[in-house]
Design brief:
The chain contains 11 helices and 29 strands. The chain has about 550 residues and is α+β, with helices and mostly antiparallel strands. The protein folds into 4 domains: about 100 residues, no CATH class; about 60 residues, no CATH class; about 240 residues, 4-Layer Sandwich (Deoxyribonuclease I, Chain A), CATH 3.60.10.10; about 45 residues, no CATH class. Helix 7 packs parallel to helix 8 and helix 10 runs antiparallel to helix 11.
Length: about 550
């Protein structure tokens, strides 16, 4: 038996190659394709395509193949076998490989013992040096200490006289970063002065060694940036950029930039468990701290439990009071943002967002328009009503279910002027601007095969003039649809962290509150240390966070 059915994966396969005909052609290069799994057929998982192919194991199994798409572009597709059977070319049998057995036996051969060499040190007698005559102190000429500092290829010299003062110093700013330090003391130098100069240079060299070690650690952690000094730091929650040293050799400090990501996505239902897991992983891996979900299709009695699975510990706002099954959810991390609902409707959730630690104060509207032209007119009227109330940065994004230009649909029925008229007039009257974006142009598809597939641009991100003045540098990313037929909209907000650590202050008004004394008694009688004075200090320190919480909630 030489032909065995094997499961293969095609990671990151382009979407135009997911049709049955394309998958059959790709599988025929490897063997005889049998069928694809359910996720590949329905395109619910687009990270890789999975097929069962009958292959001849007596022939080498390829790791990648060359594919030419409909536009004539050739690309190399990687192939991953879930299991590869062993085939012995010598015995012509499946199940073992004689070459691996021989190689294993060769590796198990004990190495030859090396001969031991003994190193012997032998001291030769030398002629003792004649004692040097030291003249009296009043007859000694002023001596000089010559210190030579090597920095790369340049040298700097300093002459220090007998009184310890520096006579001359010639050193360029580039020589302040030392790699090696050599101290040369001429004959007859004062020992105390030499020791003092050597100690100062040793401290400077020690500090520089620490700097060099840190630079080596940074180079090892990020090899790609070693050859390019202009490489940007990777996106994280906090990016620390080290400033260069100034002319005096002092550190320039650290400039902190906080990156916060927001997400709005038409998820097309979150009742299925696999969608809940994938969505929770997607939010966690991409560090989203504020999420708007559209078309959740979850009943109100199950909303809290499912929202806790998607974003554990976060708070939620919904519009169940205006729409059946809650068409819009807004989830956020309460440790970072403070969200206040301003208005609710079947088409939108309008809320005020402030950051607890950074300079973010804006208004956000998550949109989910109806499918018909007549029903969606209520959305345009509602936005025109909200516009005069927004005197701060206003972000409007989500699934509008409307087209703005004639090129917003590919395939399907042509776009008519009646479809774009109302949306265009609303954007023109409210003076809205589309936020800069990157990624795919079309944000929705019906996921049909071949020529039956229709693409449309239904999801957008609009903003008013105040937003463009303060956050005009931000770019929205239209990502891959993944587990939905709509593309997720991701926005990364980078705000300079100018926070100053302020000392704790006690307000006398706290003592007049009813819960002040019970709060102090509950946290004061905890013994933390045998020393009474230290125990008082620890109790005061532990009470500080509780008083901050009391001030935040009650005052």
């Amino acid at each position: 038996m030489s032909e065995i059915p094997l499961w293969i994966k095609l990671p990151k396969l382009p979407m135009n190659c997911w049709s049955c005909d394309s998958l059959s052609r790709i599988g025929s290069v490897i063997g005889c394709p049998m069928f694809a799994d359910e996720c590949t057929t329905k395109q619910t998982r687009i990270s890789y395509a999975r097929m069962l192919i009958e292959v001849d194991v007596t022939k080498p199994l390829p790791d990648e193949i060359a594919i030419m798409d409909a536009n004539g572009v050739i690309f190399h597709q990687r192939i991953k076998f879930e299991w590869k059977p062993e085939f012995c070319e010598k015995c012509q049998k499946v199940g073992h490989d004689c070459r691996k057995v021989v190689r294993t036996q060769q590796l198990n051969v004990p190495p030859k013992k090396k001969k031991k060499f003994t190193q012997v040190w032998q001291a030769y007698p030398t002629k003792p040096a004649a004692p040097e005559r030291v003249p009296p102190r009043d007859q000694q000429a002023p001596q000089q200490l010559r210190v030579s500092t090597t920095a790369g290829k340049d040298n700097s010299e300093a002459n220090i006289n007998a009184d310890g003062d520096i006579a001359t110093m010639q050193q360029s700013p580039q020589q302040q970063t030392m790699q090696h330090t050599n101290v040369q003391v001429t004959a007859g130098t004062c020992p105390a002065m030499a020791k003092q100069a050597g100690t100062g240079l040793a401290q400077l060299a020690t500090q520089q060694v620490i700097v060099e070690e840190r630079r080596e650690m940074d180079t090892n952690d990020n090899p790609s940036s070693s050859g390019n000094p202009e490489t940007l730091p990777s996106q994280r929650d906090v990016v620390a950029t080290f400033l260069p040293l100034d002319a005096g050799g002092r550190g320039g400090g650290i400039l902190n930039t906080t990156l916060m990501s927001w997400l709005v996505w038409n998820i097309r239902g979150t009742n299925k468990r696999y969608k809940q897991r994938e969505l929770c992983t997607y939010i966690r891996d991409n560090h989203f701290k504020l999420v708007g979900l559209v078309e959740t299709r979850v009943k109100q009695d199950k909303a809290a439990a499912i929202a806790n699975k998607i974003a554990p510990g976060w708070k939620m706002v919904h519009n169940y009071s205006h729409a059946i099954n809650g068409r819009i959810w807004v989830l956020w991390d309460d440790n970072i943002y403070d969200v206040t609902v301003l208005s609710l409707d079947a088409h939108y959730v309008h809320c005020h967002i402030t950051s607890r630690s950074l300079n973010i104060d804006c208004v956000m509207s998550v949109i989910n328009g109806y499918n018909t032209v007549e029903q969606i007119k209520a959305l345009w009227q509602a936005l025109e009503t909200l516009a005069p109330q927004c005197n701060r940065p206003w972000l409007i994004w989500g699934d509008f279910n409307a087209l703005l230009t004639v090129k917003d649909r590919c395939n399907g029925a042509p776009v008519t002027s009646m479809e774009i008229k109302d949306f265009f007039e609303c954007v023109h009257n409210l003076l809205l601007t589309e936020v800069a974006w990157k990624g795919e142009y079309f944000t929705w598809s019906n996921k049909q095969q071949d020529t039956s597939r229709v693409y449309s641009r239904l999801d957008r991100v609009m903003a008013n003039d105040e937003w463009m003045l303060q956050f005009g540098h931000l770019v929205v990313e239209y990502r891959l649809p993944f587990i939905s037929d709509h593309s997720p909209l991701g926005l990364t907000i980078n705000v300079p962290d100018n926070r100053v650590k302020t000392p704790f202050k006690f307000f006398n008004v706290w003592a007049q509150h009813d819960t002040f004394m019970p709060l102090v008694r509950a946290n004061w009688h905890r013994r933390r240390n045998c020393n009474q004075l230290q125990n008082i200090w620890l109790n005061l320190k532990g009470l500080r966070n509780h008083l901050k919480k009391l001030n935040k909630e009650e005052f």
